[in-house]
Structure formats: C-alpha cells, structure tokens
Design goal:
This protein has about 190 residues and is an all-alpha fold. About 90% of the residues lie in helices and about 0% in strands. The longest helix is centred in the C-terminal third of the chain and has 53 residues.
Amino acid sequence: SRKVQDFNKNDKAYYISIFNNDIKFIEEKFVFPCTEIFSNTIAFIVTFSYALTINKYMALIIVFAGFLIMIISKRLGEFAATDNDNHFSSLKGYNEILNDGLYGFETLYRTNKSKAFMKLFETKTNKVESSHSTAFKSSGKLIVLVNYASITIQTLIIFISAIFVFRGIISPIYYPVLLSLMSDIIFPMQEIA
C-alpha cells in the first residue's frame, strides 16, 4: 500500500537497501543482458542455419544438447538464487544498523551506548560477510557444475559426430566444421539461459 503510515513502519535504511538492490538487480538482469541476448540470438540463428545445411540430424542433436545444458543451468541456478536472496536479506539488516548508527551517533555517544552498538554492528557485519561468502561460493560451484555438464554433453556430441562420419552420414571434411559449430550453437544458448 502507499499510505504514509505504512511508509513510516520502516526506517530509511530499509528503503535505501531496497532501492540499491533493485537498481543492481535491474542492471544485472535486464539492462545489460538485452544486448547480449540479441547478439547471441543472431549468432545462434546463423550458426544453426549453417549446421542444418551440413547435416540436419547433427544440427538437431546439437540444439537438443544446448537445451539440455540450458535446463541444467536453470535448475542449478535456483540453488544459487536462494543464497543470493539470503545475502540481500542480510544486507538489509546491515544497512538498517549502519543508518541507525550514522543518524544516532551523537545519542549513542552521549548515552555511553557506542560500545554496545559497535558490538551489534560487528555482528551484522560478520553476518553480511558470511552470507556474501556463501553466495559467492555457491555461484562458483554453479559455474563449475554447469561447465562440467557442458563439457560432458559436448564430448558425447563429438563421439556421435565421429560415428556419423564412420557410417558415411557426414563427410569427413565437415567433421571439424560441425565441432566448431557445436560451440557456436551451444554457447549462445547457454548465455541466453
């Protein structure tokens, strides 16, 4: 709701935290990726079209593998999102205590409560650092797992392509071309996901 009473239920730091987090979220999730999505879509269309001219079955297998990697990436991303949400939640509390300390420093100092405040501030700082570390580690694990899955699936495609070459379904001349196109098709799909 937009009532003044509702606005006054939280202090300024709460709203500053939301504002900062929202701006960062919008930049990372919407503004910056728009150009990436456009260029990756064009790259995908061009490389997939060329792969279709070489062998439609291999082109479809490569796209299927790309979708498989996208699904794996999305599923694993959900786990990292929870840790990121926890980090943003702890940042809210940190910003609130920081705001209270900055605006009420004179009162804290005069009432001899600055040591208690500093202890509370240290606790909030440790919580933020811990949640940041957890979010950072889970994001790193996500990247590693997605890369392992991608490498495994692409290795499987290499073997399938080799079988197609040995059976005469694909000309040996196009084998290295298909391998190159595989990366050029799957990479944009991963980036779009």
